UniProtKB/TrEMBL annotation, chains A, B:
Gene3D superfamilies: Aspartate Aminotransferase, domain 1, Type I PLP-dependent aspartate aminotransferase-like (Major domain). GO terms for molecular function: histidinol-phosphate transaminase activity; pyridoxal phosphate binding. It comes from Tabrizicola oligotrophica. Pathway: Amino-acid biosynthesis; L-histidine biosynthesis; L-histidine from 5-phospho-alpha-D-ribose 1-diphosphate: step 7/9. GO terms for biological process: L-histidine biosynthetic process. Its EC number is 2.6.1.9. This is histidinol-phosphate transaminase. It is an enzyme of class 2 (transferase). Its cofactor is pyridoxal 5'-phosphate. Belongs to the class-II pyridoxal-phosphate-dependent aminotransferase family. Histidinol-phosphate aminotransferase subfamily. It comes from the Bacteria. Keywords: Amino-acid biosynthesis, Aminotransferase, Histidine biosynthesis, Pyridoxal phosphate, Transferase.
């Protein structure tokens, strides 16, 4: 250990992992999960056209991908009625959150987020020495008014809000977000994480001009488009901020298969519509399963359903442990009072049948 | 612009791109290149088994990849007769260089590299505020003795050496590197970039114990394995350093197709042997083409041939421009005196036929 000469900041960081993957759990269980419903992946999979495009790109993978992502950025710009210079593409929203934090946060700089919200953002902030200020949820929603009040008090450089929210599945209507943007102090850039927006009700996306310097929006091909394992996220923001990513990003980091798959997926909006319908149906079924077991499904604008088990975090954790032992992978919020819930991704019929069979047994055992 | 609140370090960085991609050049030319020989990609492509594995993984890409890369790390450990905890896998060597620099370099910390060596390392060092000290090449080789002398004088935290070297294609025998490791000051970690090692003569890889805290070795699936567009690199180093990457890396950054492709490619060492034979043949042909045009092919331990055109940088740049205009993508070293050369990747017969046809015309026009 004596030879390790990390920076003082790096030395101070824990080697923790933000999420333990299901494969790690499978290795300790000694068998694969029967139902993979914990990572909000899309069991409907990607568009068949995207699968075909990725298979074709595999034969061309001896070539680096275009470091400027010209075609993909042009297609995204057309899709969002903005210009390519409003778009940044990166290695998932996780990767882009890392780059943005690096651009904006030096040791001691402040950020504001919600207590219990997506943990990869604080992981990056801590990694660059930033100070994280957390605001509680209001019921099962992130609380825009409290986030604004906190930002006005602390003048952070970044404020994070996911809409729809993970892990609760709740959402705010677009105008609520617009009001929040208008009320933030001028020092604060809003990170609007819209990973689940493709699955949310109409009107969830706020009207924000791509040139608006107060907001950076994040989108992904991991959820609605069903390509979590491809690692393609993108941001929409003002061109000067978009350009700043070029100062630090891994310029050849987006591979050839990733670019081809994303391009084909974006072109197949019919597939996305089918996924949306399938997700709505799956949410209804998960809500019915929750009801049948005396739990309450929270309203969801995502591809998962958060179920209030009506007791405390210990009970929910015990239930989750039992489900894991029965071969069902689900997750749950990490902090009270959100941790009274389980978070179950929408699955196909086979996976939901298994969940329906196992949930009552798990609850029984946890009691 | 007024709203951008970058860190002072980020604000000071240029938005330059380390390499302009061939696609960017094709867009300004208005047509695709006829021969793509500039990025040291493998025109032999990846193993057919790897292509099949990637196509299969495309159907499973709705799942995140294993964030611990268990199977790939186990296979790499078996291949290198080390343990999985000696291995770090990341988004190409470029991505891993970024992580390592972030772990080790705070503003003002020093690094030593060679003047004209791989530019992505200084890109990352500048990005974290490090001070870059450059040592000239000795002839067409990086100069281990001068690098050691410079390190002894300046006590840098990192010393970079590529063996074989890019852009010159030269190499040192393993014992030269071993002597360099023994002579470095205790403050300095050697980054040994072995991107091209799969194509080098036997004896090029030094004997270094994976536990040796003085060295981190980088390898890649981009060159010999022919998967530049997949973005999979890895490091071999002491476990405490390997573990430190977990403090900051994009834990879900390695996708499902990338992991599957790398695993299958590693398993097909017969394919690598075929590529090695094809590369050797291609180097011979490129040397003959150089000779026939009054140029000198430098000895190469890589999948490219660096050709000394026998005049100055302006002449080489003019020749490169002409080749570009003729639809041939090649690159050249950026600094004198290395910039008297062109760097031409080994291609298949069709691509080398085009290069053979175009080189005399380009030289003629440049004269």
């Amino acid at each position: 250990m004596t030879a390790l000469r990390l920076t003082p900041l790096a030395a101070s960081l824990p080697s923790t992992v933000p999420f333990v993957g299901p494969e790690t759990q499978e290795r300790s269980l000694g068998r694969p999960f029967r139902a993979r419903l914990g990572a909000n992946e899309s069991l409907f999979g990607p568009s068949p056209h995207a699968i075909a495009a990725m298979a074709k790109a595999a034969t061309e993978v001896w070539m680096y991908g275009d470091p400027e992502l010209f075609e993909l950025k042009a297609a995204l710009a057309a899709h969002h009625a903005c210009r390519p210079d409003h778009i940044v593409v990166g290695e998932g929203i996780d990767g882009l959150l890392g780059y943005l934090t690096r651009l904006m946060i030096a040791p001691g700089d402040k950020v504001v987020t919600s207590l219990g919200a997506y943990p990869t953002f604080p992981f990056h902030v801590a990694g660059f020495g930033g100070e994280i200020i957390r605001v509680p949820y209001k019921g099962d929603h992130e609380d825009p008014e409290a986030l604004v009040a906190c930002a006005r008090a602390h003048r952070p450089k970044l404020v994070y809000l996911a809409n729809p929210d993970n892990p609760m599945g709740s959402h705010h209507a677009g105008p609520v977000i617009e009001a929040m943007v208008a009320a933030l102090p001028p020092e604060s850039l809003l990170i609007l994480d819209e990973a689940y927006i493709d699955l949310a009700p109409p009107g969830t996306a706020p009207m924000i001009a791509p040139d608006d310097p107060r907001v950076i929006r994040f989108r992904t091909f991991s959820k609605g488009y069903g390509m979590a394992g491809l690692r393609v996220g993108y941001a929409i923001c003002a061109p000067d901020l978009a350009r700043a990513f070029d100062k630090i990003r891994n310029h050849f980091g987006m591979g050839r298969i990733a670019q081809a798959g994303a391009l084909a997926a974006l072109a197949d909006q019919d597939w996305l519509a089918k996924v949306r319908a399938g997700v709505a149906e799956g949410r209804d079924r998960l809500a019915a399963i929750a009801r049948a077991n005396g739990a309450t499904a929270l309203p969801s604008a995502t591809n998962f359903v958060t179920m209030d088990l009506g007791r405390d975090g210990d009970f929910a954790r015990a239930t989750l442990r039992e489900l894991t032992g029965l071969g069902v992978f689900v997750r749950m919020p990490g902090v009270a009072p959100l941790d009274r819930c389980l978070r179950v991704s929408v699955g196909d019929k086979a996976a939901l049948d298994i969940f329906e069979d196992c949930l009552p047994r798990a609850l029984q055992a946890a009691r």
